[in-house]
Amino acid sequence: MPVNRQILFASRPGGGRGGWVTEDNFRLVESPLRSPAEKQVLVRNHWLSLDPYMRGRMDEAKSYAKGAELGQVMVGGTVGEVLESKSPKFKPGDRVVGALGWQEYGVGDAAALAKIDTSIAPASCYLGVLGMPGVTAWVGLLDIAQPKEGETVVVSAASGAVGSVVGQLAKICGCRAVGIAGGPVKCAYVTGELGFDACVDYKAGNLHADLEAAAPKGIDVCFENVGGEIFDTALRLMNPFSRITVCGLVSQYNATEPYAMKNLRSILVNRIRMQGFIVADRMELWPRAKTELAGWLKAGRLRYRESVAQGLEAAPAAFIGMLKGQNFGKQLVKLI
Ligand SMILES: NC(=O)c1ccc[n+]([C@@H]2O[C@H](COP(=O)([O-])OP(=O)(O)OC[C@H]3O[C@@H](n4cnc5c(N)ncnc54)[C@H](OP(=O)(O)O)[C@@H]3O)[C@@H](O)[C@H]2O)c1
To answer: With a 6 A CB cut-off, is 200 part of the ligand 1 pocket?
Structure first.
């Protein structure tokens, strides 16, 4: 039996007081591989997904999901190959997506894994555009915000896994898609490759004026991924009866002091409907979302980009880098 390498959650950022996650919050260990029990499978993980929500699990603060326990394998989405199966649902060689965590091999319940079809798209896409981030964009935009043709949709973290899909879906709906991203290279990709109508570089220092110019008719839908000053600025430009989908607040996840919002009055005077959501609460929408996303991907109407770190040991640095914006597109770790 080969040895399994795993990355464990070793300590809480800031000793439990929050703040920036550091590489010593993780520990790489080797452990013997265990055999699957009845209704379980053993999987060789090929790809690991790194996602902002993992940062939330490292704190003890009350949240929508229970925090991770120290000493556990870090949680995470994975795609891999079934090596051994004690379930009629899978056979060796099947490619599966699941949440087997930051490790090279995983034993999981067959019920919590799903086969993927690599004739539709490469395996890694099932952690990005055809996986949880893509479905998040679909649910948050199409089910919650419900944009109408001709409306202006603004999305922050626009070059990232979720944001890149949001803007492209907005275009499919006939909307004006405006992204917000960090730096001219990411902005050029968002307009040039992804086909957004405009992209504002929030690092350029003129966020309000640039966003106003990019959304000359105001904002009808704000798909919020970042929070803080970016969200506060978008609030100033919202139209009457507009919608805000609060998907994430990544600028706040490593902050010790929360950003104090100044423009909440806009919610009242513009009669804005604002809704937060967690994609895992909407499992009934996943099959339809995945089918539609796969159709648009096949038709060339959805593009994506990946940042790939090599090897399990690279995961902590890549995770921290992603939270600092060093990723360009979906952040993955290639495990084999
Ligand atoms: N509600 C749900 O169910 C759900 C599901 C999935 C994801 N999410 C949320 O969706 C958001 C995007 O997730 P993702 O997986 O697609 O990640 P991502 O956008 O691929 O990567 C994170 C990006 O956040 C941006 N960022 C980080 N710190 C920032 C700051 N201080 N100011 C502005 N931008 C900053 C960076 O882009 P720049 O270089 O452009 O700054 C970075 O590339 C996150 O908030 C995440 O928590 C929510």
So the answer is: no
